[in-house]
Specification:
Blueprint: E1 2-4, E2 10-12, E3 19-23, E4 26-30, E5 41-47, H1 48-54, H2 69-80, H3 85-88, E6 92-96, E7 98-101, E8 105-109, E9 116-119, H4 121-128, E10 138-145, H5 153-164, H6 172-178, H7 183-186, E11 195-196, E12 209-210, H8 211-220, H9 239-243, H10 245-261, H11 275-291, H12 302-307, E13 315-317, E14 327-329, H13 333-340, E15 347-351, E16 357-362, H14 366-387, H15 392-397, E17 422-425, E18 431-435, E19 443-445, E20 452-454, E21 466-470
Parallel strand pairs: 6-10, 11-12
Antiparallel strand pairs: 1-2, 3-8, 4-5, 5-10, 6-9, 7-8, 13-14, 15-16, 16-17, 17-18, 18-21, 19-20, 19-21
Helix pairs in contact: 2-4, 8-10
Length: about 475
């Protein structure tokens, strides 16, 4: 099969469940390693040409290869000093299901699981994308048979890859993707390719944000992590989300692993239905700062000139929802998170009868709320900036900006009816919007843990809010 690297270069590899037979130069088997904690291991020396023509699977490698400086250096060796390659290269570590040695040949059997190269992917990439005969170069395959009945086999393979990678440690987000920890979020997205889920993610779009950034976005609006007037009234504000992206992801990673090991749901899985909305809000903020209407002197103030739209301002193309095809300002990530966290006060949650979050939504449609409150918010942010001597460092490290909230509970005499203008079912990901039109309504929201009830299933009491399914 053909894959495309993050840099756009095609390369060949085997599919899962494949079998490949190599003619070897030398072979050694080590089957007594269990006495010191190892697995049965085979050291197989091939010509690089043999590997280039027959390929290996790469599914056991959490990190995708790319045409990096290291790859170019390897290919220069293959071209200029072919016989030295085997002496200077660490080789390729491979995990497989079974190894069968013949007369001058060795057969590797790979299951449908994540097997194949778990370390040395850049060596493999350098060889199979080389543009010349490499039959005078050699490469070592260290093939490890990891027992199929081993508990936590995937984690064992990841650990082998992590410990043997002596160039750059695998990032947690690469390991998280290999272990499918992001699946609850990917499944809720209209286009998961707007995120780079692991290092050198070849499927990610050119404008993709990293997976840790997505975790930070969700954490920022998590109404049970940071202060929320109803759901977490004693909580802190989201300063740590703006200033500590790495530690936030590490904390989530550890919690997600623990949940996985105990067959529990990811603790932030319920927020997955909001990811597309968060991306659109992110684009909305970028567009608003560049093109939005502001009646006050916001764009003349130092906060705007120094940090958003002054002489050094840069723009980015927007791609999400109503902003697809437009252009906005590229905002500092700390400021972007600061503003995004203001929408947390607008979040609604409803629990089922077992105490699980069944519905998540917005009290007021986010674009409407931003248009209503943006001038007040940016005026306050500008004042806070002036108060700390127009120092951005002092501004992001002060508490005051993070206390700004877009939604104020009790903002109207009719609150809390409706309790939320937009609802998402966290199980089905269906979206519902509030309606006053009884002919248009498809559901009504029970005050109990039953949640949304179809009008066709049960007659609606007079005082319960009506909703309709949104396409």
């Amino acid at each position: 099969m053909t894959r495309t690297s993050n840099g756009g270069e095609n390369y060949r590899c085997l599919e899962r469940g494949s079998t490949v037979e190599f003619n070897y130069v030398d072979y050694g088997r080590h089957d007594n390693l269990g006495t010191v904690g190892g697995f049965e291991t085979h050291h197989i020396y091939l010509t690089c040409q043999e590997l280039k023509e027959k390929y290996l699977p790469i599914d056991a490698n959490p990190r995708e290869p790319s045409n990096s400086r290291i790859v170019k250096s390897m290919q220069e060796t293959l071209r200029d000093d072919a016989e030295s390659f085997v002496k200077w290269n660490n080789g390729i570590t491979v995990v497989c299901e079974n190894v069968n040695k013949g007369s001058g040949t060795v057969e590797l059997e790979f299951s449908e699981e994540d097997e194949g190269i778990c370390n040395g992917g850049h060596t493999y990439f350098a060889i199979v994308t080389s543009n010349h005969d490499v039959s005078n170069s050699g490469v070592l395959l260290e093939v490890i048979e990891v027992p199929q009945d081993l508990d936590n086999r995937e984690e064992e393979i990841v650990e082998i890859a992590k410990k043997r990678n002596n160039i750059n440690n695998l990032d947690n987000y690469t390991v998280a993707d290999f272990l499918d920890l992001y699946e609850p979020f990917k499944q809720r997205m209209d286009d998961p390719e707007v995120v780079s889920w692991h290092e050198n993610d070849s499927e990610a779009k050119s404008y993709a944000v990293s997976a840790p950034e997505v975790i930070r976005m969700m954490t920022t609006v998590n109404p049970t992590r940071y202060r929320h007037a109803i759901l977490c009234p004693g909580g802190s504000y989201h300063k740590s989300a703006a200033t500590s992206k790495t530690s936030l992801h590490t904390s989530w990673f550890e919690d997600a692993l623990e949940a996985r090991d105990n067959d529990n749901e990811d603790p932030m899985a319920f927020l997955g239905v909001l990811i597309d909305d968060l991306f659109e809000i992110r684009d909305m903020i970028a567009y608003s700062f560049k093109e939005g209407d502001y009646d006050n002197s916001f764009r003349k103030r130092s906060f705007y000139q120094d940090n958003i739209g002054g002489e050094d301002a840069t723009t980015r193309d927007l791609h999400m929802g109503d902003y697809d095809g437009l252009t906005g300002y590229k905002i500092r990530s700390t400021l972007e998170v600061m503003v995004l966290g203001m929408f947390r006060s607008n979040l609604f949650q409803k629990y089922d009868e077992d105490g699980n979050v069944r519905y998540v939504g917005w009290m007021v449609e986010p674009k409407t709320l931003w248009d209503e409150e943006k001038e007040r918010v940016v005026d306050n942010l500008s004042t806070f900036y002036d108060d700390v001597g127009k120092s951005y460092r002092d501004f992001i490290n002060s508490e005051a900006p993070y206390r700004e909230e877009l939604y104020e509970f009790g903002r109207s005499a009719s609150w809390p009816f409706p309790p939320a203008e937009i609802l998402y079912d966290t199980e089905s990901a269906d979206k519902y919007v509030f309606t006053e039109d009884t002919e248009d309504a498809t559901h009504w929201l029970a005050d109990s843990g039953e949640g949304l009830i179809s009008i066709s299933d049960r007659e609606r009491p007079d005082d319960e809010p009506l909703y309709k399914v949104s396409n």
